[in-house]
């Protein structure tokens, strides 16, 4: 049973289905919630690690890469985010074709290997290869199957289940920066990275044992054409444009949050905790709005959250100059953007055939990869252009999230056939 006539497209009968594939979504039970648990840890080690980029941006600027400009250093987190999203279309098709098991196992190995290589890196290109390419490819092979499997087990409670899983990335974004900040002065950068890698390996074992799809894989021909055909669907095109612009603006404050705190006179230790504050609030923003979205509609909640992000940038971050303002913005922006991270897969699933969830999710994240690649370097260049100030970066961020909000509103109205006050 679907939530509304516009929410989930009917699934065509398939002669190759195994028994149980055509049964209604369980929407609960031990097996379904164990998938959520495994996905929680999968998000912890994949997107949760990516949420730590602000810590490494500041650390590299003052240590191994002190001779490079902020814009140049920012290519490390930018390429990392670009890689994890660019891998989306390919991982998505592999997920639809072969299921999650091989992807999860291979991704776990590659992700941990990348961090181990980063622990012995010393040159700029070392960090690019290990932390921006190898590790994110592995993380992508964990991230997308984790989300994709949840959609096969839940329908009425899909946003809540995804929000719980996505909160794993928030917890990772809280634990990892604190772990890094506390361990580097004690055991050094190299062993800190290895300690993080060993922690991830343990959690990934749980993910590999629990995350399974309810549906049998559907072997299909691979091709880049399938990626582009998804954009022929107007609701999906509007959603992809919303995600592109919103993410372009969202990722910039995450990258420069620590350096911004330092520019406002914060101590090194306090400024690094801004990332933990952001991710702690993001955890709330991923669970509570997911519960609300199942009641009032995924698109309604996403639109409101994107508007809140816009208001926070222009109303709090841009005019504020104190330590307190920086901390309030970090927490509130984490709350609003956490909703985006948690509900995005549910938005795709709502307008898609569930058997194409891997391809469609990958296509959306593939478009976001361009925003991820461009956002941080643009932000670094704007800081340089402002003579070390942040106002140009803040204005650019606000404009991007505002445009993203407009497209979220347009996609909501299209699906609701112009009705403003309706569940969608």
From TrEMBL:
<feature type="transmembrane region" description="Helical">
    <location>
        <begin position="159"/>
        <end position="179"/>
    </location>
</feature>
<feature type="transmembrane region" description="Helical">
    <location>
        <begin position="191"/>
        <end position="211"/>
    </location>
</feature>
<feature type="domain" description="Major facilitator superfamily (MFS) profile">
    <location>
        <begin position="235"/>
        <end position="424"/>
    </location>
</feature>
<feature type="transmembrane region" description="Helical">
    <location>
        <begin position="127"/>
        <end position="147"/>
    </location>
</feature>
<feature type="transmembrane region" description="Helical">
    <location>
        <begin position="300"/>
        <end position="320"/>
    </location>
</feature>
<feature type="transmembrane region" description="Helical">
    <location>
        <begin position="363"/>
        <end position="387"/>
    </location>
</feature>
<keyword id="KW-0813">Transport</keyword>
<feature type="compositionally biased region" description="Basic and acidic residues">
    <location>
        <begin position="1"/>
        <end position="20"/>
    </location>
</feature>
<feature type="transmembrane region" description="Helical">
    <location>
        <begin position="76"/>
        <end position="95"/>
    </location>
</feature>
<feature type="transmembrane region" description="Helical">
    <location>
        <begin position="326"/>
        <end position="351"/>
    </location>
</feature>
<dbReference type="InterPro" id="IPR050327">
    <property type="entry name" value="Proton-linked_MCT"/>
</dbReference>
<feature type="transmembrane region" description="Helical">
    <location>
        <begin position="393"/>
        <end position="415"/>
    </location>
</feature>
<dbReference type="GO" id="GO:0016020">
    <property type="term" value="C:membrane"/>
</dbReference>
<feature type="transmembrane region" description="Helical">
    <location>
        <begin position="270"/>
        <end position="288"/>
    </location>
</feature>
<comment type="similarity">
    <text>Belongs to the major facilitator superfamily. Monocarboxylate porter (TC 2.A.1.13) family.</text>
</comment>
<dbReference type="Pfam" id="PF07690">
    <property type="entry name" value="MFS_1"/>
</dbReference>
<feature type="transmembrane region" description="Helical">
    <location>
        <begin position="32"/>
        <end position="56"/>
    </location>
</feature>
<keyword id="KW-1133">Transmembrane helix</keyword>
<dbReference type="GO" id="GO:0022857">
    <property type="term" value="F:transmembrane transporter activity"/>
</dbReference>
<feature type="transmembrane region" description="Helical">
    <location>
        <begin position="102"/>
        <end position="121"/>
    </location>
</feature>
<dbReference type="InterPro" id="IPR020846">
    <property type="entry name" value="MFS_dom"/>
</dbReference>
<keyword id="KW-0812">Transmembrane</keyword>
<keyword id="KW-0472">Membrane</keyword>
<protein>
    <submittedName>
        <fullName>Predicted protein</fullName>
    </submittedName>
</protein>
<dbReference type="InterPro" id="IPR011701">
    <property type="entry name" value="MFS"/>
</dbReference>
<dbReference type="InterPro" id="IPR036259">
    <property type="entry name" value="MFS_trans_sf"/>
</dbReference>
<feature type="transmembrane region" description="Helical">
    <location>
        <begin position="236"/>
        <end position="258"/>
    </location>
</feature>
<feature type="region of interest" description="Disordered">
    <location>
        <begin position="1"/>
        <end position="24"/>
    </location>
</feature>
């Amino acid at each position: 049973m679907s939530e509304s006539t516009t929410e989930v497209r009917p699934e065509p009968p398939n002669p190759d289905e195994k028994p149980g594939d055509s049964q209604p979504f369980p929407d609960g039970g031990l097996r379904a919630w164990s998938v959520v648990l495994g996905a929680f840890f999968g998000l912890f080690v994949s997107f949760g690690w990516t949420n730590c980029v602000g810590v490494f941006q500041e650390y590299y600027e003052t240590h191994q890469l002190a001779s490079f400009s902020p814009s140049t250093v920012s290519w490390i987190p930018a390429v990392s985010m670009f890689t994890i999203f660019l891998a989306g279309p390919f991982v998505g098709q592999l997920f639809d074709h072969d299921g999650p098991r091989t992807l999860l196992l291979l991704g776990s190995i590659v992700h941990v290997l990348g961090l181990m290589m980063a622990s012995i890196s010393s040159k700029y290109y070392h960090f690019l290869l290990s932390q921006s390419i190898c590790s994110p490819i592995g993380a992508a092979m964990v991230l997308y199957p984790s989300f994709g499997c949840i959609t096969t087990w839940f329908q009425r409670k899909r946003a809540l289940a995804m929000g719980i899983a996505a909160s794993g990335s928030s917890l990772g974004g809280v634990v990892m920066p604190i772990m890094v900040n506390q361990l580097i002065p004690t055991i050094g950068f190299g062993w800190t990275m290895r300690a993080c890698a060993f922690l991830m390996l343990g959690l990934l074992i749980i993910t590999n044992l629990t995350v399974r799809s309810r549906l049998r894989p559907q072997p299909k021909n691979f091709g880049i054409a399938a990626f582009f055909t998804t954009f022929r669907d107007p609701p999906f095109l509007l959603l992809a444009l919303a995600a592109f612009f919103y993410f372009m603006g969202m990722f910039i404050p995450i990258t420069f949050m620590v350096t911004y705190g330092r520019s406002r006179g914060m101590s090194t230790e306090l400024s690094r905790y801004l990332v933990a504050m952001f991710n702690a609030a993001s955890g709330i923003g991923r669970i509570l709005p997911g519960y609300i979205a199942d009641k009032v509609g995924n698109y309604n909640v996403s639109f409101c959250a994107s508007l809140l992000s816009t208001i926070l940038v222009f109303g709090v971050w841009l005019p504020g100059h104190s330590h307190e303002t920086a901390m309030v913005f970090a927490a509130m922006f984490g709350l609003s953007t956490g909703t985006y991270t948690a509900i995005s897969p549910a938005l795709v699933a709502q307008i898609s055939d569930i058997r194409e969830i891997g391809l469609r999710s990958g296509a959306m994240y593939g478009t976001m990869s361009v925003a991820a690649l461009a956002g941080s370097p643009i932000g670094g260049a704007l800081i340089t252009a402002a003579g070390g100030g942040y106002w140009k970066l803040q204005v650019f961020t606000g404009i991007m999230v505002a445009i993203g909000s407009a497209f979220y509103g347009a996609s909501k109205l299209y699906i609701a056939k112009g009705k403003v006050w309706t569940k969608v």
